[in-house]
Automatic annotation (TrEMBL):
It comes from Limnovirga soli. GO terms for cellular component: efflux pump complex. It comes from the Bacteria. Pfam families: Beta-barrel_RND_2, BSH_YknX. Residues 50-223 form the YknX-like barrel-sandwich hybrid domain. The lineage of its organism: Bacteria, Pseudomonadati, Bacteroidota, Chitinophagia, Chitinophagales. Belongs to the membrane fusion protein (MFP) (TC 8.A.1) family. NCBIfam families: RND_mfp (TIGR01730). One of its GO terms (molecular function) is efflux transmembrane transporter activity. Residues 231-302 form the CusB-like beta-barrel domain. This is Efflux RND transporter periplasmic adaptor subunit.
């Protein structure tokens, strides 16, 4: 046999061998579940980052990671010498401006009002006496005019004394309120140098140490609920319209390899992250693992539909345009339904008795 004939026989043998090894299956009736992929993290309920209300240097860290804290508990204290001195100055000014500290000034004006009132009353009596004499044609017109002028002058002096007393009372009251408000402001500013917890929870992370500089834009700690955890998942914008509250979530975590946990969708954030083109959804565990920590990563499938009995084939047996290849190499059009990552439902076009070939890649 010539070398060319040998080569042709070898090619035919290879082709026949490849054809004979082409995989063949029958459709299967089974349960199929359609789902949407999501990835995300575990978060403690009410988890939040703690920020400082003032810029400064940490003088003391008052808690440790893992500590339980209550709302209002001090976490860190910043160097606050200037703020403390300002608060003390404001307190001194408030004490000086208080009504009790101005009693002597008020008493002096009260005496002036009383003195002016006494003089006015006396001038009123002298004026009435002079008028009686004038009616009896005793005395001169000039004496009567002088008495009237003295009465008017003392009346004006009494009114002026009363106005000065009222004005001083208003001024002292204003200064007292203003100084008290300055004390509140200074005390609040001084209080800003103590970083406090905004809610009950556990200190999961301390992001700054003693001696480090902090500002109002950088978190210093991470705090969250010590017992309740939830899931924060990212869903692609292509799939978000398929998600509704109440859907089941099947997830796995690297920290619990081989285990599948169930959760339920509880919230859909309606705003899309323009950078990642994804939406954030939240889900609650149906039965949470025994131990969880914030920011554990997870992968999830959100169940959007399922059928208990459906005719399915592997997705890699489906040709473009929804065709399948029968054993006799005939292409047949099928109608597909639900799909997951491995299987596709065949609504019509195939039965469990048909045999189909896997397309040659």
């Amino acid at each position: 046999m010539t070398r060319t004939a040998l080569w042709s026989s070898f090619v035919l043998l290879v082709l026949f061998s490849c054809k004979s090894k082409q995989e063949s299956i029958q459709p299967v009736e089974e349960k199929i579940t359609a789902s949407v992929y999501a990835s995300g993290i575990v978060k403690s309920n009410n988890q939040y980052q703690v920020f400082s209300s003032a810029n400064g240097i940490i003088a003391a860290v008052l808690v440790k990671e893992g500590d339980e804290v209550k709302k209002g508990d001090a976490l860190m204290r910043l160097t606050n010498t200037t703020a403390r001195l300002n608060a003390e100055n404001a307190t001194i000014a408030a004490d000086y401006a208080a009504v009790t500290a101005n009693t002597e000034k008020l008493h002096e004006l009260v005496l002036n009002v009383d003195l002016a009132k006494t003089k006015m009353d006396n001038d009123a009596l002298l004026l009435q006496r002079q008028r009686n004499l004038w009616d009896q044609q005793i005395g001169t017109r000039n004496e009567l005019d002088q008495r009237e002028l003295a009465y008017k002058s003392s009346t004006s002096a009494w009114e002026a004394a009363k106005l000065r007393l009222v004005d001083l009372q208003k001024q002292i009251s204003f200064q007292e309120k203003q100084s008290k408000k300055n004390v509140e402001i200074s005390t609040t500013i001084a209080g800003d140098y103590t970083i406090k917890s905004e809610a009950d929870g556990k200190v999961y992370s301390l992001l700054k140490e003693k001696g480090e500089m902090v500002n109002t834009q950088t978190p210093v700690a991470l705090i969250g609920d010590a017992s309740v955890f939830m899931l924060e998942l990212q869903v692609d914008e292509y799939d978000i319209t398929k998600i509704v509250i109440g859907q089941t979530v099947l997830l796995n975590m690297d920290s619990y390899k081989g285990q599948v946990f169930e959760a339920v969708v509880t919230k859909i954030n309606p705003s899309m992250n323009e950078r990642s083109k994804s939406f954030t959804i939240e889900a609650a565990f149906k039965q949470a693992p025994a131990a969880l920590y914030p920011n554990l990563t997870c992968e999830a499938n959100i169940v959007i539909n399922e059928k208990a009995k459906a005719i399915t084939i592997p997705r890699n047996y489906l040709l473009s345009g929804d065709y399948v290849l029968l054993e006799n190499n005939e292409k047949r059009k099928v109608v597909t339904g639900l799909k997951d990552y491995q299987k596709v439902e065949i609504i019509s076009g195939l039965t469990v008795n048909d045999h189909i070939l896997k397309p040659i890649q």
